[in-house]
Amino acid sequence: MVLGPNGAGKTTLLQVAAARLHPTSGAVQILDETLGAVDVFELRPRIGLCSNAVAGSLPERETALNAVVTAAYGVTGRWREEYERLDERRAFELLDAWGVSTAFDRPFSSLSEGERKRVQIARALMTDPELLLLDEPGAGLDLAGRERLVQRTSRLIGAEDAPATVLVTHHLEEIPPGFTHVLMLRDGRTVASGPIDETLTAETLSETFDMPLELHRRDGRFSAFAAS
Ligand SMILES: Nc1ncnc2c1ncn2[C@@H]1O[C@H](COP(=O)(O)OP(=O)(O)O)[C@@H](O)[C@H]1O
Ligand SMILES: [Mg+2]
């Protein structure tokens, strides 16, 4: 988990972790590779990224299925009939796993916010990545949509073959049960980092958001309110 207020640098950090952005100073190691000493076009398919920036770059009329399947094309780098069919089948299965297969032939832009989020996650999973990065996947969802996303994400990270997953949010309610570690950021700096159970406290949270906060925890879920 990466937690922090708006402008803390969460998205920037994730762009670096996704090998989409180079730091101006310092060294970055991702999946045992060093950024700058590795071909990013080989590294990127090993990393699934779900962010609004990716969604925004999809063509207007792209169908949900194509929004997922095109994530594979950068990998194969060539077009063959047999790849195409296999890729489409995989894309459809991913849409199905995230409960949006009925929307497969609808334009991505016409989908509801919740459907779009799930299509984006399916897209991020298309290359069967070793590392999955989710930048505020719950943003803009209604209560039921958020809860469904939390449940599905929790199931995803609990699977035996799950990729290492990093989820960015500024809402504690969006933390799916099963995440083990947290990095708390404020103004581009680390406030605290470590196992969630020890690290996420009312104190670190108050410091991260620069406000006295109360932290509540129940059955692996979190919420927070202004301290009274
Ligand atoms: N470590 C950093 N050093 C310099 N600038 C940073 C750093 N982290 C974030 N920024 C800048 O701060 C701004 C907000 O960062 P962003 O990653 O969008 O925050 P968040 O996703 O947490 O809201 C961006 O303009 C970004 O370039
Ligand atoms: Mg952000």
Automatic annotation (TrEMBL):
Lineage top rank: taxon: Bacteria
Q: Which residues form the ABC transporter domain?
A: 1-212
**What UniProt keywords apply to this chain's record, in alphabetical order?**
ATP-binding, Nucleotide-binding
Pfam families from the xrefs? ABC_tran (PF00005)
Entry's Gene3D superfamilies? P-loop containing nucleotide triphosphate hydrolases
Signal sequence, renumbered to the chain: none
Extract the SMART domains matched here.
Answer: AAA
Mark the transmembrane ranges: none
Q: Which GO terms describe its molecular function?
A: ATP binding
Q: Which PANTHER family match?
A: SKFA PEPTIDE EXPORT ATP-BINDING PROTEIN SKFE
Question: What name does UniProt use for this protein?
Answer: ABC transporter ATP-binding protein
Its source organism is: Nesterenkonia halobia
Q: What is the lineage of its organism?
A: Bacteria, Bacillati, Actinomycetota, Actinomycetes, Micrococcales
